[in-house]
Amino acid sequence: MQAKLLMTLKGKFITAVAAVLTLSCGILIVYTSHLQHRLVIGQAEQQARMLYRQILLTRQWVADHQGLFLVQGETAQSNAFLHEPLTTTASGLVLVKRNPAMVTRELSEYAAKSGLGWFRVTSALPVNPANTPDAFEQESLRRFSAGQTEHLAIDRNQDGRVLRYAAPLVAETSCLACHGEHGYQQGDIRGALSVTIPIAWADAVIRANNQTLLFLGLAAVLAAAAVMLLLFSRLVDRPIRQLSEAMAVFPEQTVEALELPHSQDEIGRLSASFADLCRRLSASQQALAAAGEQGFRAEKLAALGQLTAGIAHEINNPLAGMLNCVRSMQQEPENLDLQNRYLPLLHKGLRRIELTMRQLLNYGRVEPLHIRQVDVDTVILDCLELLGHRLHNIVVNLDLRFNNLCCIDSEAIKQIVMNITLNAIQAMPEGGSLSIASREENNAVALTFEDTGTGIAKELQDRIFDPFFTTKEIGEGTGLGLAVTLAMVQRLNGRIDVRSQPGVGAVFIVSLPIDRHCLHPENQSPTSERVSA
Length: 533
What we know:
By secondary structure, this protein is α+β, with helices and mostly antiparallel strands. The protein contains 11 helices and 14 strands.
């Protein structure tokens, strides 16, 4: 069901909208996360620079006052790396000296406890081993010696990400009192001040913000998809479904009875165009039906005209003999032997003319289907007898094995047999062989017509049942014979197949369903069916 929904226009539209919104929200979240990251890093960098300047000011103040002296105690011990780490006052109070480096280190310990960051002094040649530089600080000292004024990097410790900042410490006049003996001169870079700012808390805030943005983005996508689904269902899906249902029931229902969407948008205009198309199709179908009815009648009359010459021969022969008999009887009116001999001949000739005319009238009459019990094999023989004058140079091979009665319209069978047989005769102008067979196959009457004529080209086999399509010479046919045959077969709910090779001949196979449940001829009333275009 889900796969089917995705294949509909609604599914494709909602999927596309959701994909665009998801992509947009994703880009927004990524950009916002990057912006937050840059903001946090920028703030941390500014914080490190400010802390660096504050420490420099503190160190400068301590250096300008020749150090800072504290009362010796548990938290204030002497520094073994100073020449005069202790001083005793006149009252006997022991004071310990704190130089800028010691002040920096002790302030860093307080800062670290507060969680705001920590810092320390480092040097390539440290007096105190505790000031030995780490990898970041070594890289910073290398860059400072090359002229760079600061160095920043993002590092990671056990608590998360941290910002590392380092800037050089330049020897000044107040610094030479302690560091002059180490060979430093004013303006020399004697080390660096390394500042570390933790940003793990900011990463947690960024993650929380990203989760919030993701949740809001998904909610926005779902809300937009729901609104789009509702709007699409009301404005597009429902009208299109109405149009589809209207197309399915047309032309069984008239245009006025169809439930079509009425709106001023594109679908409304499409609906109006469809209604107009249905009206034009209905008018065209009516015109085509009328033209088809006239065309079928014209073809039948054309075929009737082609039979007239042969039928005249069938009538003229017995008429000539009958005239001779009448003339002889007039010459010898008292000759009873002559009358007894000629009167049966006159009666036989009249019966032959009557039979020919009855067959001709039955073939030419236009009437609806009359379903009655018919002997199909007898109908085929009657048609061949009617066409006898056209078969003088054609060998007819009959294999009629249906041998049963079925409920069908005899005139429809006659028209089918006549049209296919005439088509075969015209395909063999120099003579040939025509084989006609009848069988019962799969509860249907199977009629097979096989000739040895010119055959049908492969590219024309799909067109031979088209109305007015013909390859005959002018005057030999209107091109409706096989079209009429196909229409008759379809009226009888049957089918017709054709096999042919040019120069070899053609095979027409007609299959008509068998019905043996109609009334007997003397009790039945005919049922009619209007010819459909």
